[in-house]
Amino acid sequence: MPTRTLPPPLTQLDRWRRDTPGCRERIHLNNAGAALMPQPVLDALARHLEREAAIGGYEAADEAEPRLRETYELLGRLLGAAAKNIAIVENATVAFNQAVSAFDFRPGDRIVTTRTDYPSNQLVYLSLARRAGVETVRADDLPEGGVDPESVRRLASHPRTRLVAVSWVPTNSGLVQDARAVGDVCADLGVPYLLDACQAVGQLAVDVDELKCDFLGGTARKFLRGPRGIGFLYVSDRMLERGAFPLFLDMRGADWTDPDAFRLADGARRFENWEFAYALVAGMCEAARYTLDVGVEGQERARSLAAVLRERLAKVRGMRVLDRGRERCAIVTVDVRGRDAVALELALRQRGINTSSTDRKSGVLDMDEKRASTALRLSPHYYNTEDELEAAVAAVAELAGG
Ligand SMILES: Cc1ncc(COP(=O)(O)O)c(C=O)c1O
What we know:
Blueprint: H1 12-18, E1 27-28, H2 39-55, H3 57-63, H4 65-79, E2 86-89, H5 92-100, E3 110-113, H6 119-132, E4 135-138, H7 149-156, E5 161-167, H8 179-189, E6 193-196, H9 208-211, E7 215-219, E8 231-235, H10 237-241, E9 254-258, E10 261-264, H11 278-314, E11 319-321, E12 332-336, H12 341-350, E13 353-354, E14 356-359, H13 364-369, E15 374-378, H14 386-400
Parallel strand pairs: 1-13, 3-4, 3-5, 5-6, 6-7
Antiparallel strand pairs: 2-8, 7-8, 9-10, 11-12, 12-15, 14-15
Helix pairs in contact: 2-3, 2-11, 4-11, 7-8, 11-14
């Protein structure tokens, strides 16, 4: 009998890639935009839609009740929280807005934030200034980049401070804010703390107790590898016990009990809206399960691939790495001298390499300080390979004429 050679055992990386159909098509370095969904996420989405078509949307939702319960539990495990402290919402922006709307701001009240918070969050601060006379103050950065927790302390000590809000990882760079140090400051001062963890969940370890945050918002589609159009909000017991609820309450969040009265739902559910994209929830459930299975190994790999990428890009002529701060993550941003990042992104896409571009509007203060009008953003995940990074660096170098 001829001897048969057995195929080599699958490595962890092989498994991750085998589970990721998109890996076969492209080099996907846009996980900070939307990561490639693994097969179990796709299957869950499709299965739920099929059930909606077969038996009806409301009936399929009833049938999916156990999975919905599981989604809260898995998200809770991912964040170090109990299921009852998790609300499922449409996206990270809605999570942020629901949390902010729980405060009855008066003219002269203060929000303390950073210089790199997400643009939509900045727009909410500006809107609150215009509509309600709320003052937003931005803490100073440390010389190496990243917010100075002592500056947060000085500003948040002001008696009118109602809220400290921080984007843990901004959208336009690989900076990781020292969210824990800010949490310590907020706990010392007794000021509520809202953390936008949209770019953090799936690539950084999250523990809401350690972070000492009162609200933490996120989305499924980024490093969590879920579908687009669904997200979540953690709400602390402290906030729930205080009776916090969103300004625009929905009938899932409360019962209309008498003509002029309502009763809030228990737990973070009071921050939810009645209409749910159940198929997306099913996808987010599987994404949370997959992320928990992959564990810290995947997070570390994503960040170390980014470190390699950053180092290699820094060596290309004409390339300026823009990421700052003590800690950096799986997002790499570069200014390619003389080249518009949007054009580069499109040229790379034509070669089968997905990246994204960011412009001044994504971070006015940060981009101005870096004297960059656009930046190319490359964000690997644990399923990427070193060969893919090499191919991307070579393509960027060629396009940049480096
Ligand atoms: C830091 C940060 N916060 C919030 C958001 C908004 O997330 P969503 O589009 O899910 O509302 C993003 C999206 O890129 C982000 O990068």
